[in-house]
Structure formats: C-alpha cells, structure tokens
Specification:
Number of helices: 7
Low-confidence stretches: 3-14
Mean pLDDT: 89
Structural class: alpha+beta
Order of helices and strands: EEEHHEEEEEEHEHEEEEEEHHEEH
Distance between the termini: 46 Å
Shape: globular
C-alpha cells in the first residue's frame, strides 16, 4: 500500500503539495499515468506541465513525465495553486432552495454540481453560489462556509446548510451522533436477493487508487473508519435492482463502496466499474439497450431523496423529500420496459 500524505499548502508560494511512497509490488509505469490515480481532478496535461516546471521529484531529483516509477520510490509533487482570495469567489449560481429560515436552508443539488471548491474545481460550486446569496455564513471545521455535510458531484439531492454558528454546531453534532436521517435511492447492478439488509464494513482509501475508497475487514479493519448502510429493495428489474439506502454513518462514497462490496455496484458508476455491463446477456441488442441507458443517465444512479433532522433552535423534527431526477426516472422506465418484455 502506498504511503500517502498531503503536505499543507504553503501560504506564501500558493502551491499544493502531495507526497507518496510507491508500494512494493508496483509494476513500472509512467509517472504521469501513476499520478492520475492518486491526485483527484489532476489531468494528465496538468501533471505533464508540473514535470516541465520541474515540480515532480523522485527520491529528491526532478523527473520528466515519462519517468517510470519503481517500488519504494519517494515521490513529491508541487502543483500551482490559485491565490486564496480567488478560491471563494461569489457567483450568481441558481440554487434550488427547498426550505429556508433564519437558521438554515435545505438545498436540492443537481447532478454535476461540485459542493465545494477543491483542486481542479475552483468555480461553479454550490459554495460559490451560497456566498453570493448569503452573507457571513458560519464556517465548518474544514473552513467551508455553511457546509454541514456534502454529497458527490454526480449525486443529486438534498443538503442542509447552516446560516448561523448555532445551527452549524447543532446540525454538525446531529450528523456526528447519527441522529439525522438520510435516505438515498440507488439503481444497482444485479438481482439483490434479500429484501433488506445491512452492510457493515470499515471504509478507507483504496490502496492502489486514492480517488477510490474500499472496505477493510478482519486484520485490516484498522485501515478504515466504521461505516453502516441499511438497504431495502424497492423494485427488481431483471439485471438491475432499485434500492433504498439509509446511512447510519457518512463516509466518502459510502453507498457506492458498500454496494460494490456486496456485489451490487451502482449502475453507471464509472469510478467503481459500474459503467461496464456487469450483469445480463451477451446479445448485441442487450448491449445497445444498456448503452442507451448509460446515455440517458450519464452518471452514477444515486439520489439523496430524503433528509431529516432536529431544528437547532425550535427542537422540532424537520423532514424533507425531493423528486427523483428525470435522468434516473427515464432510465428506470427503460429498465421496467425491458424487464416486462423479458418476463
């Protein structure tokens, strides 16, 4: 497993630093290809530019982008980082606000919108929009205005945003203490046999690709953080199944990782292999059908449908639900038609 550490950004030089130790079993591989597996949102062009700038080091020496990594190589990379005052630029981005009061708001995030700025995504995020529409949002422990929790870029659905320090503290503790309620709907590959079940498995960074997470069990459980997902079958559609997933914990990619772990990767989840035809026939017509479904739903089939929590001031329980987006709905209709035809 590579020893990965992210060095804090240098405030004066405005660079973002990464450090890696290559694992013992690594086969020779160009360093630009290798780094694409370990630095989120870093394109090959950006990595090659860093090499041209003399900002990629192996064992203390600068290397070119065609250098082939070897086991135990110590790699450090320095990417240019935009000035911090430009990281959080207020942008007039439309936000679908489901509920708002003096303490908080609930937002319905569309698929494709990044929640907060980060390497490679410095504009067009939900936070860029929030700071345009709202002044003096409280910051969370990661210095991000208003953000109590987050969902992935290509996941749609509900988020709660804090407008006051009191709301930030109260809501954050509910998520930490597992008293909030979050339900997602997901279309997964395969026939889920049990009507309902629970997946428990510690989640941590994947040993060979830091853009992914994985489940660690047994003697390796210490490598991950505890994660619990409760699932329930909503509809069986032949080679795919529609499930409801309720989160007890909120780890990065939790549903995507847990469902893959039990053999039911999310439909069209490219990062975890769901963009391949994992179940079904070998017929050309079926392959064309699935590819058409991928075109209708060009992302992982995951939607944060319901959200519940206690209001930080009134103590009243608030619960919200959002409609399933059109791309998932159209994809489901195609699968229903296919399943009916098969039956």
């Amino acid at each position: 497993m590579p020893n990965i550490s992210e060095v804090a950004e240098n405030e004066d030089e405005l660079y973002e630093h990464y450090a890696f130790k290559v694992e013992k079993g690594q086969q020779p591989l160009r360093i630009d290809k290798y780094l694409m597996n370990f630095v989120e949102n870093a394109t090959r062009n950006k990595i090659q530019q860093a090499a041209k700038d003399g900002s990629i080091f192996v064992n203390g020496q600068t290397v070119k982008s065609n250098y082939k990594v070897k086991p135990n190589d110590q790699i450090t990379v320095k990417f240019e980082h935009p000035p911090h005052e430009h990281l959080l630029v207020a942008e007039d981005i439309p936000i679908d606000i489901v509920y708002e009061d003096d303490e908080l708001l609930v937002v319905n995030k569309p698929a494709g919108m990044v929640v907060h700025p980060g390497h490679g995504n410095y504009s067009g995020t939900l936070i860029n929009g929030l700071i345009h529409h709202f002044e003096n949002l409280p910051k969370n422990s990661s210095d991000r205005p208003g953000l109590v929790h987050r969902i992935d870029k290509d996941t749609s659905g509900l988020l709660v945003v804090a407008k006051t320090e009191n709301a930030m503290a109260h809501l954050s503790s509910q998520f930490a203490e597992k008293t909030s309620e979050r339900e997602y709907i997901a279309l997964v590959w395969g026939h889920v046999k049990e009507d309902e079940g629970t997946v428990e498995g510690n989640i941590g960074r994947h040993p060979k690709n830091r853009l992914k997470n994985t489940v660690y069990e047994g003697d390796e459980a210490y490598k991950g953080k505890s994660a619990v997902t409760h699932y329930k079958v909503l509809e069986r559609l032949g080679y795919v199944t529609l499930v409801s997933c309720k989160l007890e914990t909120g780890r990065t990619h939790q549903i995507r990782v847990h469902m893959k772990h039990i053999g039911h990767t999310l439909f069209n989840d490219e990062r975890y292999g769901g963009e391949k035809i994992l179940k079904g026939t070998t017929f050309t017509k079926y392959k064309q059908f699935v590819e058409n479904c991928f075109k209708i739903l060009p992302r992982q089939a995951l939607h944060a449908k319901t959200l519940g929590f206690e209001h930080p001031t009134t103590g009243k329980w608030l619960s919200f639900s959002s409609e399933v987006p059109e791309d998932i709905t159209l994809c489901l209709e195609k699968w229903r038609g296919y399943a009916k035809h098969q039956n």
